[in-house]
Write a structure and sequence with these properties.
Elements lengths: L1 H15 L6 H30 L16 E2 L6 E2 L1 H30 L6 H5 L3 H4 L1
Antiparallel strand pairs: 1-2
The protein binds zinc ion.
The site of zinc ion has 6 residues, from helix 3.
Length: 128
């Protein structure tokens, strides 16, 4: 009891003397800690639900940045700068794939071996 009182006394004294005040750092750490605890607790709930055979609790809201842009070709999300580059790239890839799919189909029907002789004609250079 005495120790408790001393403990509270010290607390109040510390509050009255704001020499060691680090409110920003403390609250920041606390916020991070809360996030960490939340993540652990949700993970615990999932594993608990799995053990008990219950349906999983609703997942945490996805931390997807609403500013992110979704690629219309592959549905991946990127930040603005990356999305601009990626969508261009992905569009080209999509066109390439579509083009390749169109062109390879008729070629695929033909025997591939018949297409090789023209390439082999370049070989005589090596003989010289
Ligand atoms: Zn994409």
């Amino acid at each position: 009891m005495k120790q408790r009182l001393q403990g509270t006394e010290i607390m109040t004294i510390k509050k009255q003397h704001p020499q060691k005040k680090q409110p920003e750092k403390k609250s920041n750490w606390r916020q991070h800690n809360e996030d960490f605890v939340n993540a652990i607790q949700s993970a615990k709930q999932v594993s608990k639900a799995l053990k008990e055979g219950r349906s999983l609790p609703p997942p945490l809201p996805p931390s997807i940045n609403p500013d992110y842009i979704q690629c219309p070709h592959c549905s991946q999300r990127f930040n603005e700068a990356a999305a601009e580059r990626h969508i261009k790239f992905c569009e080209e890839q999509a066109i390439c794939h579509a083009f390749a799919a169109k062109t390879t189909r008729p070629v695929g029907k033909q025997p591939v071996t018949q297409r090789k002789p023209p390439a082999a004609a370049a070989l005589p250079l090596q003989k010289v």
